[in-house]
Amino acid sequence: MTEKDTYITITKASEEVLFKDKNSKFFGYAFPVTSENAVKVHLEDLKKQHHSARHWCYAYQFGKDENQYQFRANDDGEPNNSAGMPIYGQIQSFDVTNVLIVVVRYFGGVKLGVGGLIAAYKTAAQMALENSKIVTRTINQDIKLKFEYKDMNKVMRVIKEKNLKIKSQTLELDCTIIISVRLKKTKTVLDTFKSIFGVQVDLLNN
């Protein structure tokens, strides 16, 4: 089985979308996020922007590896599982991660019932994601190479041949280069550098 080394996410905040049902307004937003702190900042901004709204319901998911996803769904006062989970369902449906979706509701005076709420929050979340630029990104591993300056040509030849991305480099008598390698190519690249006499190779925690 090949290890999955890609994930799907959004590149920037979506434009605001609006879904209406029986005078209730549901404003949908999608944001790229990688931490709970970023989630908090976006929620605070939307609460200032929509200070007279009734509910700010949301769901998020972080992580590049589906076995280690962190996620949360919040109904923010709506009936249990009528808002946060329908929003999270769209994150799963679009197979995106490192994303926050917030749906802000203004109550229009007519109760929608749990079924109506589920449909409305799901639709607003779907519209927010449809209005986002969705991209596939690779999961990469950083590798540190340490070697003497005299071995520079051998190391750089491999970097060029394998089209590897250099993240940082210190080129003195003792040299250090940090490269970023797509996950499924890591073993081949490691083996290649380990076969060069005088090059110390270390995997870094990303």
From TrEMBL:
It comes from the Bacteria. GO terms for cellular component: cytoplasm. Residues 22-129 form the Impact N-terminal domain. One of its GO terms (biological process) is regulation of translational initiation. InterPro entries: Impact, Impact_N, Impact_N_sf, Ribosomal_Su5_D2-typ_SF. Belongs to the IMPACT family. This is YigZ family protein.
